[in-house]
């Protein structure tokens, strides 16, 4: 059953979609219209911990697999890894068919099946199309039940359909980072925006070059020699200095800083590199932990509605990554293990924040697809009176 939210004329297959049904069959049904057109896939499949209550229910003919049907996979099941792989394999194959040529897939996982997931992702997508794995710090810290290591992280595996189609990866700077780092301004503020100070001294990891070692005269006439070498040749330094883009700081001794502006000469804001670690320290985003995801969902529904939902801020952070040349602001995003609908929430929040036109397709197998997954989307669009976030109380809009 597909629903386009809201809409009196029934589902529009070019609009946001929520599909209630077996995700294997749903992915097959999406192929005729969406094969090769999905820009980003994010999935959060069962981690196969033995405590999730999932069962292998695919329509298969092999007698050995038929014996698995309908049986809940628990921690004592000696075949649980085989069942998990048999469930994931055909779905990942279909997801690859749905990806656009420059499309990417991101898969959340913990240590229970991460090695198996690497193996099948390498087989289906090709190891040459694997990017660095993202590490997500999911908890503030440990609790009294931990006996050995305190597990604070999960993994997000990142693959693409064809790495040669992707030129580079970056992401927009967050408002918090801009406020923290871009603290100074000059006569170029209107177009170039504020700037941050960066040392002209090069890191020692760079190859030594004699033409990067020269003396620079400080305002008081002192000649400053580099400890190792400068970033630029002398001619470029003189050009930048003449353009009033060099500053000298004296904290006991002189240092040379260059101005890194927020915007380029045309006024386009700079991006930053995508970090392989997602935590508060790397994002300056509050509420990027599992605990926040639970509180967020509780504020929407007024009660606990789902176990361990991902926070929408995490998915927003993932979706903000720009896999160029794809325009992330108009991406088609698919989540075939939709759960509580966090991916849709994140898409709607990003569109509200930057005026984007991202679209989502969610697929949820369980019976709560309407009462939880779709209902969350309705409330996020129209407003959730109990939400702590003011924008969420008023509704993020969308359809």
Structural class by SSE content: alpha/beta
* Corresponding CATH superfamily of the largest domain: Vaccinia Virus protein VP39
> What is the strand tally?
17
Q: Which strand order does the major sheet show?
A: 1-2-17-16-3-4-6-5-14
Q: Averaged pLDDT, please?
A: 90
What is the overall silhouette?
A: elongated
Radius of gyration: 25 Å
What's the CATH architecture of the largest domain? 3-Layer(aba) Sandwich
Q: What is the H/E string? A: EEHEHHEHEEEHHEEEHEEEEHHHEEHEHH
Summed up, the helix count is 13
Low-pLDDT sequence parts: 1-8
Instruction: Kindly give the count of domains.
Output: 2
Main beta-sheet strand count, sense and barrel state: 9 strands, mixed
CATH topology of the largest domain: Rossmann fold
End-to-end Cα distance, whole Å, is 17 Å
- Range of helix content: 25-40%
- Amount of beta strand: 15-25%
Could you name the CATH class of the largest domain? Alpha Beta
Your description of this structure?
- This protein is of the alpha/beta class and 399 residues long.
- It has helices at residues 23-34, 63-66, 80-98, 114-125, 175-181, 189-192, 234-242, 280-283, 290-301, 312-319, 342-354, 368-382, 390-394; strands at 2-3, 17-20, 38-43, 99-109, 134-137, 153-160, 168-172, 195-199, 216-217, 223-224, 246-250, 254-261, 271-273, 277-278, 322-324, 332-335, 359-364.
- The protein has a nine-stranded mixed β-sheet with strand order 1-2-17-16-3-4-6-5-14, with helices on both faces.
- It is elongated.
């Amino acid at each position: 059953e597909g629903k386009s939210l809201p809409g009196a004329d029934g589902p529009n297959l070019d609009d946001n979609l929520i599909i209630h049904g077996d995700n294997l069959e749903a992915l097959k049904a999406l192929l005729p219209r969406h094969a090769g057109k999905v820009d980003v896939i994010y999935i959060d499949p069962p981690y196969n911990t033995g405590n999730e209550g999932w069962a292998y229910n695919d329509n298969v003919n092999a007698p050995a697999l038929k014996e698995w049907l309908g049986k809940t996979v628990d921690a004592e099941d000696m075949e649980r890894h085989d069942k998990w792989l048999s469930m994931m394999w055909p779905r990942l194959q279909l997801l690859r068919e749905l990806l656009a040529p420059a499309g990417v897939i991101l898969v959340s996982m913990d240590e229970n099946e991460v090695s198996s997931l690497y193996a099948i992702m390498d087989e289906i997508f090709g190891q040459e199309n694997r990017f660095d794995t993202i590490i997500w710090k999911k908890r503030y810290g440990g609790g009294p039940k931990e006996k050995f290591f305190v597990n604070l992280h999960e993994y997000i595996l990142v693959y693409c359909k064809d790495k040669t189609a992707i030129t580079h990866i970056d992401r927009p700077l967050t408002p918090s980072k801009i406020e923290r780092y871009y603290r100074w301004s000059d006569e170029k503020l209107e177009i170039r925006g504020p700037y941050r100070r960066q040392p002209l001294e090069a890191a020692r990891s760079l190859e030594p070059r004699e033409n990067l070692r020269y003396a620079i005269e400080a305002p008081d006439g002192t000649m400053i020699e580099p400890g190792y070498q400068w970033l630029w040749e002398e001619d470029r330094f003189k050009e930048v200095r003449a353009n009033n883009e060099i500053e000298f700081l004296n904290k006991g001794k002189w240092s040379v800083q260059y101005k890194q502006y927020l915007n380029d000469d045309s006024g386009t804001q700079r991006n930053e590199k995508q970090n392989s670690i997602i935590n508060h320290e790397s994002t300056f985003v509050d509420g990027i932990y599992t605990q926040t995801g639970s509180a967020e969902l509780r504020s929407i529904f007024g009660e606990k509605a789902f176990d361990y939902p991902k926070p929408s801020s995490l998915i927003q952070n993932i979706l903000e990554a720009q896999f160029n040349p794809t325009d992330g602001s108009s991406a088609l995003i698919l989540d075939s293990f939709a759960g509580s609908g966090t991916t849709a929430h994140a898409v709607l929040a990003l569109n509200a924040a930057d005026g984007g036109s991202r679209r989502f397709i969610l697929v949820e197998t369980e019976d709560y697809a309407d009462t939880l997954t779709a209902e969350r989307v309705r409330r996020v669009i129209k407003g959730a009176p109990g939400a702590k976030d003011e924008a969420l109380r008023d509704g993020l809009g969308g359809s």
